[in-house]
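Minutes, methods subgroup
Present: GH (chair), OT, SY

1. OT presented the first of two proteins processed in the latest run. Sequence and C-alpha cells recorded below as shown on screen.
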Amino acid sequence: MVDGWTVPGFTHERELGSGGSGRVVQAVDDLTRTKVSIKYLDPRLDGDEAFLSRFRAASRRLSQLEDPNVVDFYDFVETPQQGTAIVMEHVEGVSLRRVLAAQGPTGPLAALSALGGTLLGLAAAHAHEVVHAAIRPANILVDLEGNARLTDIAVSPTGTEASAGPAYAAPELWDGATSTVSTDLYAATAIFYECLTGRPPFSARNMAKAHRETPIPVEEVPGPLRDLIARGLAKEAGRRPATAADYLGALEDAAVAAYGPSWEAQGRGRLTELAAQAASQPEPPPARGRAAARSSGRQPTVAAASPAGGRSRGRLVGAVAAIVVVIGGAVGAATLLGDGEEQPEPTPAQSSSPQPAAPANPEAAQLIEHINTATSRTPNAAFTFKRSGCCGAPASARGSLGLVANAPASYSMTVSGAAEAHRTAFTVLVGDTVYVRSGKTWRPSPTAGPGYPALAGQVRSGTSMQSVSSLLQASTTLRKTGDRWQGSAPLAALSQDPVVGPLYGEMAKATGARQVGFALRVDRASRPVQLWLKAQGPVKNRAQVLQASYTGWTRKAPISAPH
C-alpha cells in the first residue's frame, strides 16, 4: 500500500521510485493481468486544488494521446480522504537520467536519437494542447528498443517549473512566466546538450542569471550540431523553433548532412546499448547540494510500458500529429501509421477461417507473410481500440489479446460504447462466447448478442490480425514511408471477408463510402504497432474512423474463459 491505500482493481508488485511529484509502483491489473505503473501523487499536489483542476483538464486530453514516444496515460484516480494517483503504461527500460549518470556522454548519434524521440513525444502532446512543463532526463524513458518516451506530463504546478528543474528551465520561467511549447523545446535542447557533453549547459550558484545572461556554450558540442543547440537554447523565446515539428525538421537535416541517412538507426542502436549497460549497474544515488544543478533531474525512474516499437528516419519527418496524408483522393490517414496486410494462408497463430486469394501486390503478400510469422512467435499483446465518427459509432476498448492456433483471437478487455451510455464493462472473449462480468459473476453470451457482447465482437474484428491482413489483401494502393505503410481498399471487397466482413459492411452502409483509407505502422520485427483507417462517405460528416494500437508483443499463457 502507498500511504494506506491502493488504486482499486490493481495489485502492487514493487516500488519503482519516488520524487518531487510522488511515489511510483509497478502494479498489475487484477482483471487483464496487464502491468501498469501507478504514481501516487505527493500530498503537496494532492492538496493543491489549482493544480488538480488543471490536471483534470489535462488528463482528459492525455487519455486521447496515443504515441510511441509517450508513455500511455490510462486514468487519473481521485478518492475522497485517501489521495490521488495516475495509472499509466508500464515501460520496461531506464530513465535517461540513469543512462547519463552511469555512462556519461552518449555520443552524437545516440544524443540525436534521444532528442528526436523527445521532440516526437512533445509534438504529440502539443497537438493535444498539453505542455509537458517538466522535461528532464528523469522524465524521459529509454525502452528496450532504444526509443525515448516521455512520462510525467503536466505534473508540475504552475510557478514551480524553474525551481524543480533549474538546469533545464528557460530564462522566462525564472521571470515568472508559465510553461509553453517554447520552454519545453528549451528544456529538450538542454538535455540534448547534456547527452553530448555529460553535463547541462549552465551550472552556477545563480542559475537564473546563468540562463538569462551566460553565452550559450556551443563550442563544447560537435560543429554540425551547434546550430541546433544555439536555436533551442536561444535566450528569447521568439528565436527558438516555433514548434517541435520545426525542430524535428532541422534535426533531420543536420543529422543526415553530418552522419548520413542511417544516422537514426545507428543512434537508436547505440542508445539501446547504453540503456542496457545502465540497467545492469546499481541505481546511482541522487545528487545533492550544488551537484543537483548539474544532475539529470530529481524525478523517479518510472519504468513504465512495453515497448511500442522503433522509430525510423521517415517517422522523424512525417509522424508529427498535426500532419494529414491524403489517401486514395478522398480519404485521410494520420501519418503516425501506415498500411498492413493479410496472410494468404492461415498460420498457427491465426484464424482457420477460409482465406481470400493471395494479394496481387507482391509487396503486400510479403508484408502479410512477415506479420504472420512475427506474431506467431509472440502471439500476445496489449491493445487499445477506438471507433469514432457518425451514425452512433463511438466505442472504445483496452486490454490484452492472444492469437490462438486455428481459432479466432481471444481477448480480455474493458469495453464501452455509445449504446451503453459510455459505461465500462469487463469482458473476456474466447471463441464465439463473450463473458461479461456482473458483480462477482460472469455472464456468458454469444458474440451475436446485443450490447456489450456485440461490441466485444466488433472490437475483435477491428483489432485482429485478420483485419490487418484483410486490408492489405484487398488494397488497391499501397506504399511504404519509413516504418509505416499506407493505402486504400474497396469496402465491397472487404465486406466479403468471411471473418471481418460484417464490420466493413456496417461501415459502408453507415457512411455510404466505397473505399477505406488505412495506415499501419509496424515495429522492426514486423509486428503491428498502430492501425488507423477511415471510411468517408460522399455526404459531409458521414465518416467513421477506427484506431488501434499494440504494445508488448510477447509469448505467454493464452487467455482462457473465466470460471
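2. SY then presented the second protein from the same run.
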Amino acid sequence: MIGSLLIANRGEIACRIIRTARRLDIRTVAVYSDADAQALHVREADEAVHIGASPARESYLVGEKIIAAARQTGAEAIHPGYGFLSENAEFARGVIDAGIVWVGPHPASITAMGLKDAAKKLMADAGVPVTPGYMGAQQSASFLAEEAAKIGYPVLVKAVAGGGGKGMRLVESEDDFADALASCKREAASSFGNDRVLIEKYIASPRHIEVQVFGDTQGNLVHLFERDCSLQRRHQKVIEEAPAPGMDSATRAALCGAAIRAAKAVDYVGAGTIEFIADGSGPLSADRIWFMEMNTRLQVEHPVTEAITGVDLVEWQLRVASGEPLPLAQHDLAIDGWAMEARLYAEDPARGFLPSIGKLELLHFGDAEYARVDTGVHEGAEVSSHYDPMIAKIIAWGEDREEARERLGEMLSDSAVWPVKTNAAFLVKALRHPDFVSGKIDTGLIGRDGEALAAPPVPSDEALQAAASSLLPVTAMAGFRLNAAPARAALFLLDGEQVEIGLTGQASEKPTSGVLVTEQGQAWLLSPWRRDSAPGGAKGSGAILAPMPGKVIAVDVAQGDVVTKGQKLLTIEAMKMEHTLIAPFDGVVAGLDIAAGAQVQVDALLARIEEKDT
C-alpha cells in the first residue's frame, strides 16, 4: 500500500479522500489556491501546499504545479478526485513520467473515451448498444443535415468533446437544424477548442442510468450495479439513486454485462462509470437502453453505490493503484437496500438558481438515521465565486426506496444555512413530486415542473409566531391565555418583506434585533419592523435587496424619482454576470443609499420604493 498521497482537488471530494486515506494510515497532502487557504480540506490534510491564485486555471488546473508539490512533499501517489484534471490524459502521463503513482485509469483509456464519436464507434465494435446516429468525420452543414433527416427528428446535436450539458442542442425539425448546428459549433469551439459534432436520435422520455465498473492490474473487472441519475436540471444531475427504479434482474444483467464489455474494450483499470440512456416511455428493457459515454474517474454520486454495496470505492482505488487485486469478486457483490443522494448547492432557486456566495454564518445538517454528509465546508467558511457552489452531498439509505426517500427528505428539511441561499427546499419539493415518488422519472421532469419546484416555500404560522414572540418583550404579551385567539398582531420584516403576525406564544425576556426561522430546508430572517426599515401599506414591501454579493455598476434613479413597475433601478455585477434590479410597483424612490462602484453583500438594502399617495 502507498504510504503518502497528494490530492489534486479541493472541497468535499478532497475531504472524502482524506477520510479514507486516514483510515488506511496514508499520509495526505492537500493543495490549495489563495481562496482556499482556510478551507476544510487544507485543515484536514497532514500537509498542504499553496499552488497559486484563486482562479482554477492558475492553480488546480496547472498540472506542473501539482506534480511539483508532490515532489516537494515526497508524495508517492496523486489522486485527482473528479473534475479539474481527473480526465486529462496528458496530466496522467505527466504524473507517471515523474515516477509518481497515478490513482486512475491508463492514460490511453482516458484518451479512448475522451471524444464521444470515437468512443461510440469503439463501443459499437465491442458489441455495446449505441444510440442511432452519425459519428463520422464529415462535418459540412449540408451533409450533417442529410444525416439528421435519415436519423429522423427530433435529434440531438452534440459536441464530440462536450460535457456537463455544454455543446448540446435539441433540434425538433428540419427548419431549425441549420441555426442549431451553427450555435452548437460556436459553443463547442469556445468551450472545448473543438467544434466537431455528432448527431444522435433524441429519446423523448430519456432516463439516465449508469453502471459503476472497477478493474485492477491483474485483469479482474467487476461491476457494482447501476445508479439512476435521471432527475436533472439543464443536464446537471440533482438527485441520484441506486438501484434504478423499475430495473428487473434480466435487464440489470444485460445492462451490467454491456458495461463490462465497454470497460474491457479499453483495458480499464480503476473506478469508472459507463453511462447509458434509456427510453423511459415504458418499462425498462434491454433493447431500449443505449451507451452514451464513459467517465474515466470517480463520480460525484459514488456514495449511493457505496451505501448499497458496503464498499469504499476510494479504498479500492488506492489498493488497485498500489498493485493489489480487487478486494471482492463479482459473486461477492450484492445490492442491500436503497440509497439516494442530493446535491446541496449555494444557489437561489427563486432567483433563477443564481449562485449565492458569502460567509456560512450558520451551517447545520439534519441528523436522520442512516444518513451521510460529504462536505468540504464548515460553519464560518466562505463560499467562493471561483469554484463549483456545492456545499454538501447528503446521502440517505433505507431498506427500500420509500424509506430512503423519506430519510433524505427529512435530512434536507432539517438542514439550515444562513445567509447563503441553498436549493434545499427545491430538493425537498423534488423528492415529494408525485412522479418521483412513483419512480416515473425522466430527465425532463424538472424542466416541465421547474417553476413550481423553484417557488420558495412559505414558513408556517406556528414557526412565525414562535419567532415573532422571541423578538418582543414579555410585557407586550399581557393578557395572554392558553388556546386563546391571538392577543395582538404586530408588523415584522421577513427577508425584507413586511408581514403581520398574530402573537399567541409567550415572549422572551430579551428582545433581539432579528431571529432566523428555519423550516423545510429554507431559512428566513425575521426582524422587528421599524418606520425607517420598510414602507407602510398593505400592498407589500418596496425594499430592493441585493440578490447576491457583488459590485454596483450602475444606478439609474435618484432619491425622489417617480418610477413605474418594471423600471430599471440599478445593476449589480456578480460572478461575471450583470443583474438588473427593477421597481416592484409604481411609486417613488424613498431611499437610495448606494452609489456606482460600491461592493454589497447578499440581501443588503439598496433602495426602497414607496407607493405614491392617492
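Chair's summary of item 2: The chain is about 25% helix and 30% strand.
Next meeting: continue with the remaining queue.
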